[in-house]
Every structure is written in structure tokens, then in C-alpha cells.
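The material for today's practical consists of a large collection of protein records. An example says more than a description, so a record of this kind follows:
***
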Amino acid sequence: MIREIELLSVATSLPEPALDLHYLHYPLDVPEGAGELELELAYDKVMDVVQIYAVLLDPAGTFRGHVQCPGGPGPRRLVIRVGRHDATPGCVPGPVPPGRWTVRLDLDRHKRAAPYELTVRVRPAGEPATAAARTVPRERPAPGEVTRGGAGWYRGELHSHSHHSDGRRPVADLVRAARDARLDFLAVTDHFTSAHWDDLAAHDDELVLLRSMELTSHRGHANLHGLSRWVDTYVDRPEHTMTQVAADVHEQGGLLCVNHAFSGDQAWRRFDTPWDRVDLIEIAHLQQGANNDAQIGLWDRLLTAGHRVIGVAGSDCHDPHDPAQALGQVVTVVHAEEASRAGIVAGLRAGRVAVWRGADLDMRVDGAPMGSSTGRGRVRVEVDVRADEPVVVFVLRDGLIIGVVPAGDRPGEWQRIAVEDVIDRPGYYRAEAHADPGRHDPRFWASSMRDHSSLRAAGNPVWIR
């Protein structure tokens, strides 16, 4: 039996920043008889200047763990520990096979050289742990599938984080918050890792829990939904691109969603994006403010270019106990054939989907529902809306407004507005509902104002063949 061995001990400095320098790699030769590995990374975090993550890959290149460093600036000590039956949050337990492992340092913020220390130790099986770890079942739970209802509308959250990445609470807290917000489905989208899927398995009987994760590159973030296995999200290297990520996601029957596309250093600027392989895009993000206007503009640009991308919402909740991030404030509403993981994913893909920020909305064009197509000629666009306040419905064709119609004064009741049009070429229609601050204001033009702060609902397109 092996004894505890220090496989790696490095005290050095990050190199000077370079445009193509995103990762540093350290090989590890793990001997026979290893029971667990422990990695420790120490450095001084400088907000928006120096931030490093640590990644552990086994000899097959399989992901075994990722650790982030949420919180403010200052000295940080990040720990990864993986063993046969337990692991620290964000990491995957299992056997520790001998061979060439790899430590990857992800230079998430690298705007100047900075010192760091990296240590990796190996211990024999059964030796007591020195770092806090979660214990998981001896066998990872089977994916399982629970159906909680038949055809209908379902409300859910598509963007949230637990302590397995940079969230502050365990998965159980997110599930409880989603249930308290009367949501039907929840996607926990921890950065880089699938470690939270084990925790989801304990709550499958409470609501529909999607198996998701967030691709977190240096040039943008994207949620991956409906997965059955981990996806290699480290795309800041030339041999692994967004095209390969999209292919892996779709091979699993999943969906790729571009997130908060105008969010500063986390904005989407991946020019290798195969937009014809992108399924969803966040058009209403709880914490993005005016960036949401730009996101809707990008969405219309993609739609007019012929890409069938479905608009969705997300809170990006990192702490469900924080009122500013509480679940249920911005919701994705999906028409699905059944309330199951497969059903919700299929419903999102089909596109009969709306964003709720205080109003419910559905739309048909000549009887064709959102996500479907109909023919050219004279068409009738019908929008059903329900809100607890006066709203104005905006009907758009190819991103341009063709109708601005106040809904009737019947709060809490479904109301229908209709707009007729003639279209002789391929295109699309969609609708939005906005708060109407000018309903009783003599300045009638106030009813026509439209931005992220007034948005109450946004529906997805009906395409014209």
C-alpha cells in the first residue's frame, strides 16, 4: 500500500497576460493503490484582475472536479478532494486510477502576473480526509424520470447555482425555493460541473429537475440543458470549439442556451458560435437591467437572419434567500406534452414558450401557435394576455412594431387583442406585453414606451414559410 505522497508542489507566478493564454497545465503521475487526491491552490484574488480556478482531469481526460472562488478579494485557498465514495463540492467521486492525471488552472481573470502556490497530495484508500467533503452513495444514482403531469403550461427557472460552483446554498435550498415560488421545473446550472446531479436525485419527486450545467468560457457563458453526461466546456483552447460542444449537447438530446450576452467581461463574444446550432437565448435576465434591451435586439437580429432561436428567461440565482435573487421573479413558461425532464426539454425545443415578468401571454397566427409556422398572405395575429395591471401589447414582425394595442381593463382575466397584416415573404411574428403607465395619462404617447423595465411578458415567434 502506498503512503501519503506529495505529487506536486509549485510556488511560482502567472506569466504576463497574452491573448491566447487561458489555461496552465500540470501533469500528475498517480501511483497504484491511490485512494484519494487532494489539490490545494493558494493565491490573492484581485477583483476583475486576477481570478484562477482549478480543474482535475483523470488519465482518460474525464472531468473529476472544478473549484471556483466566489466572494470578494483577498487571499484564497481552493481545495479539490476526490476519493472513491466522497468528494468536495463541485467534484465527482469514484476510483482514483493510476496514470497521468492533469491539473488545469483556468485563468478566468488574468490581467497581470501574480504569484500562486499549487500542491497535490495522494493518499491510500481508507486514510482519513483532511478537507471537508460530501459523502455520496457508493453508486451514482441512475438518471431516473418522473412525470408529474400531462399536456399543459409549466413554469420554471432555467438559470441557478448551488455551492457546487459559485452559489451560496446547497441544491436542497434551491429546490425548496422553487417549490415555494410555485414553479414546476428547475435547472441548477452550476459552472463547469455535473457534481450537483447527485444531489438533484434526492428531490426528483418534488418538481421536474433538469440536468444542466453552465459553460463558462473567457468569452461568454452558455447553459446546457437536458444532459445525460458531462460536457467538456473548456472551449478556450483551439482544439475544442463551440461546434463540438453543440454537437455533444445535441447528441444527448439537450439544448444550448446563450446567457447574458452583454454582461461586461462575461458578455458573449464567441465568434466561433454556430448560431444554427444554438437552441435558446436569454432575453430576460433578472439582474441584467438595460442589457436585456440589447439581448432582445440580438435575438431579433438572429431571428431575421433565419435562426430559430427560442427566447427564455433566467434569474441567475446564486442565493435564493436574497430577495434580489429570489426565484419566481422572472419565469420561463413552457407548453409541454408532459411534466418530465424529457417533456420540458421537448417543449422548450418546440418553442411554445413565453417569458413571464408579471403577465401571461400566448399568441397564434392564423391558428398556428408559437414555435410553429404558417403560410403567407393576409394573416391574423391573435395575442392572449393576462395581467394584474393595465398592459399594452406590442406585435412585431421581423423585429419591427406593426401594432400597439392596449389590453382591456379587466385585471386578472384573459383578454385577446388582434392585428391583421399582409405578408408576402418569409418572416416571423412575435408579441410582448408591457406595463402601461400612460393609460390614464393625457400624454397618450406614454402608452407606446417599451423597454426592459416595462416588460411584463414576451412570446416566441410564429414563422411565415
